[in-house]
């Protein structure tokens, strides 16, 4: 499962870089949670959660980013900003990149500003 997650994170990172975002950090982990990707979109710091679901029996990939998960992401992003003060002044955005379906058939869906902090 972890290998599949890394594969989809790599795919998302490559696609976001292809459209002009710059990678700042990958798999930033704290005791509160993990940020899959931290990227720069122009002047905006973007915290990207990457999700993949093979089947929708337990809901879509985007539905798996619950309010509790969002709160963990916001808290972890706050810590990342505290450790990276040169980016602390930037506007921030939380994006979710999802892949639904089997590995070879899953298509990317990018939800910019998928949720707000606070």
Would you write up a description of this structure?
It holds the Pfam family UPF0102. This is UPF0102 protein EZM97_31065. Belongs to the UPF0102 family. InterPro entries: Restrct_endonuc-II-like (IPR011335), tRNA_endonuc-like_dom_sf (IPR011856), UPF0102_YraN-like (IPR003509). This protein has 118 residues and is an alpha+beta fold. The protein has one domain (2-115): Trna Endonuclease, Chain: A, domain 1, CATH 3.40.1350.10. Helix content is 29%, strand content 39%. It contains two helices and five strands; from the N terminus they run αβββαββ. It has helices at 2-18, 67-83, and strands at residues 22-30, 33-41, 44-53, 92-100, 107-115. The chain has a five-stranded mixed β-sheet. A hairpin with a 2-residue loop joins strand 1 (22-30) and strand 2. The longest helix is centred in the N-terminal third of the chain and has 17 residues, at 2-18. The radius of gyration is 14 Å and the shape is globular. It starts with a helix and ends with a strand.
């Amino acid at each position: 499962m972890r290998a599949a997650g890394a594969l989809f994170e790599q795919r998302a990172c490559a696609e976001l870089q292809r459209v002009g975002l710059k990678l700042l950090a990958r798999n930033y982990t704290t005791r509160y949670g993990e940020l899959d990707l931290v990227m720069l979109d122009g002047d905006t710091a973007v915290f990207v959660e990457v999700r993949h679901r093979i089947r929708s029996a337990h809901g879509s990939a985007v539905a798996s980013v619950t309010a509790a998960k969002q709160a963990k992401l916001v808290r972890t992003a706050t810590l990342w900003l505290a450790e990276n003060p040169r980016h602390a002044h930037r506007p921030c955005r939380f994006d979710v990149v999802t892949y639904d379906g089997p590995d070879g058939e899953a298509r990317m869906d990018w939800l910019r500003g998928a949720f707000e902090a606070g």
